[in-house]
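Bench log, entry 3. Co-assembly request; chain sequences pasted below exactly as received.
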Amino acid sequence: MVEVAKVVDARGSFCPGPLMELIRALKSVEVGQAVEVYSEDQGSLKDIPAWAEKAGHKLIEIKDYGDYRGFIVEKGEKKSRRRKKE
Amino acid sequence: MADKAKIVIIGAGTGGTIVANKLNKKLKRKAEITVIDPEFKHIYQPGYLFQIVGRETEKGLIRDGTKLLPKKSKKVRAAVDRVDLEKQVVYTNDNQEIPYDYLIIASGSRLVPQKLEWWNDKIHQFYTPQGAAKVYDHLKDMTEGTIVISIASMPYKCPPAPLEAALLIDDYLRRKKIRDKFNIVFTSPINRAFSIETVNTIVQPLMEDRGIDVRTFFNVDEVDTEEKVLYSLEGEEIDYDMLIMIPPHEAQPFIEKSGIPHEEGGWVEVDRETLKVKNYDNVYAIGDTTNLPISKAGSTAHNQAPIIAKNILASIKNSNKVYKYDGHVQCFFITEIGKSLFIDFNYTNPPYPGKPSRRYWWFKLAFKELYYRFVAKGIV
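Structure output for the full assembly:
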């Protein structure tokens, strides 16, 4: 089971708030750890899975808490760059 | 409370200036208004977009802020060091102590590119008069290449501005008949070019029709200004010849230092309707400095100012009446020289801007003088 290292409550915030909160939170955890972001914005259902896939992170689960959802995203490896700095 | 209510306003930008004038009109002799600002240099910031394509000058945008404020208001030329919310005193960095009965935080946002270790002056920005002038100086000498317009992080002032910049640069190059020598790339951190979906349905296709390469889900990770490459967190890379980036924004440092309720970045937590700062009945925040999920723009402050003025007046009169801000924002969105959209929305009604029109362009063009003559002075 992936460890949820950080929970971010982005309820009351609407697009692009929850996604921006997730991006910020993922910067502060290690690869393999997960972040759960709470969102009540319907747009997150589309935005967060699409962004996670593009960025190379793994959407583990979308929890339904009734009035809001919890998106659990596991941090993936940083994508390699074409030109690496020496 | 003494005979005259002491109202202190931190910041003489759009929000602070309009609210000072509104209060002065309503309160006459019932209050003593003090405005604290380090410079009293009032800048008409929408003009930066005209500057980047050589249609406005730094001098044309700036006015003496003291002349826009009520004559009888006290003007304190200093930066705020901290606020003691319990003692109700503002301390300036030159050791003045300014007590208040009502406080209005109108200290705006500040640019913090220094928070990004890779930022340097090879990256262009147009959120200062000097930066905007530099963009034009560089642009006018370019004959070919890739111009990238990008957003370092959210939130930032005037959400349409980077999109308008891309469209205006496209227009500028077309007028010079060299557009075919350029690639224009626009990057957006979210899954569309503009955050408000009803506006995006008009603007993103318009940008794409004009040959602007819109890259979505592009969150800036780093810039290599030697190699001229922009990297995203999502693993994309863009080579550029000229990079124009919206720098990160934060609220003023005295907010965190004073323990004023705030979110990350220092954005003050306010009630979205009364505009009172969380837990404080006599402290308000206006404009960019709030944590409200609406545009950080002059129009927002313009619509909030009368609400704050009326609520303070009601409090001074011991009335229970509460005035509420409905989230109203309206702005022009330039699509080319000669055409603009008009965007008008509030907390519950999204904007439906229609098509770009010449009428709104003329209004946008006239607005600088209207702003300085009527809006800033609280007349409209």
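The longest helix of chain B spans residues 298-316. The first strand of chain B starts at residue 5 and ends at 10.
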